[in-house]
Amino acid sequence: MSNRIVVPFGPQHPVLPEPIHLDLVLEDERVVEAIPTIGYIHRGLEKLVEKRDFKDYVLIAERICGICSFTHSVTYCNAIEQIMGIEVPPRAQFIRTIWMEYSRMHSHLLWLGLTADAMGFENLFMNAWRLREEILDDMEATTGGRVIQGSSKVGGIRLDIPDEKLGEMVDHLKAIRPRLEESNRIFTHDQTVRHRMRGLGVLTKEEAWDLGAVGPVARGSGCDMDVRSSGYSAYGELGFKPITLPHGDCLDRCLVRSQEVLAAVDLVERAVAKMPDGPIEEKVKGNPDGECFAFTEQPRGECMHYVKANGTKNLVRHRVRTPTLTNIPPLVKMLAGIELADVPVVVLTIDPCIGCAER
Amino acid sequence: MIVQKHTIIEIPVTELLKKTEEYHAKGHRLVQIGCTPLGDRYEINYTFTTSYDFESLRLTVHDDDIIPSISDTYWGAFIYENELHDLFGFTVTGMNVDFKGHLFETSVPTPFKNMPSVTIVPKGGDKK
Fold first, then answer.
1. What is the ipTM of this complex?
2. How many CB atoms are located within 10 Å of the residue B14 CB?
3. Which of A39, A73, A166, B18 could form a disulfide with B105 if both were Cys (CB 3.0 to 4.6 A apart)?
4. Which option is the CATH number for A4-358: 3.30.70.20, 1.10.645.10, 1.20.1440.230, 1.20.950.20?
């Protein structure tokens, strides 16, 4: 008969980029139950809508996360624009889409590097982050910021990208594409990676759906779920198709992200090829009055911004439901039954962003 | 502009569990539970979907109302229900995982709760 013990995991741990605490109930080395605790970095950002002008608040919405930042600002803007009936010019929609896909590339490459590091595969870690730096260079060149861009505004975007620069960005992506494909090939076929992640932390398609999993966690379990399929921003014109894999284990969650980096390159190339001319913003008149639930697909999954306004410059409510928050219940299910030594890798595969989750 | 379709259905608290079970039986997933403080009352939205058209059940509740947990039907609902408790001060009964106020550690208890209404009494009391 084995004894049960409780091992505290986190909030500070070498594999955790952000603080989450888990009480792991163990029988010998096997996890029988995991109880998560967050709450270490709750900033109350949603409360600031009561004091900030709704147009200025875009910059605060962007700071909810340091990785999905641009997508947060676009989701917030989508909600306000829908309430006010603002028609964002097509060029602005296309450029927003390009920056959102760049965010996805740098987020996924960051995660792939962290995962390689957690497995002790240092060479792969450095390779992923080297590629990420090249993506960030183009973000910085076009927006002035590496991770916080401040380029989206209610009604459009603040900065245009000249056509010449768009061509340079595509050339740059073409140049690094073979290295991205090589990285994807290693994650797909390398025996070390497969041995560490195949069959680990399995979440079935039914469990993923029932527990509310989103993003690569859901798609790695075979759920064909990606808000980009709804066609917001310019996705409707780019022939977008979600990437899904069937096994529901750590490796498939990893490969969904790895393949989405290459898919993002394709989307950027298509967006540049179809880039319309025209203005980049629509003038905003008056204040919003009404409510809207806006959904987008962040690198980590489906994100929701709910906005309620009463015709004044301050909003009544801004509520954000981030992908990490809804991926915590699936994580609890994944952890039950695995070995203690596998916990860090499984926790990493939901790509936890606790700053996002707690706002 | 692509407008994401969202239908809001207002229901009383007493119908919450029945309606939630209906959504579950139809194969909907729980997207989120979110609360909006409105001065003298709160709106709580339970959002469901099967694709990219969303539906929300909306409850209108007050400070001391008790809300039943839907975690028997949607296991993952505990994360939102603990948030309702920690940030808004609601009592949610029957949660499958109850953090007892320790999911969100905030320096101010229940920071999103409606402010109590205050009547300013003139100096010397309210007698004219």
1. 0.82
2. 9
3. A39
4. 1.10.645.10
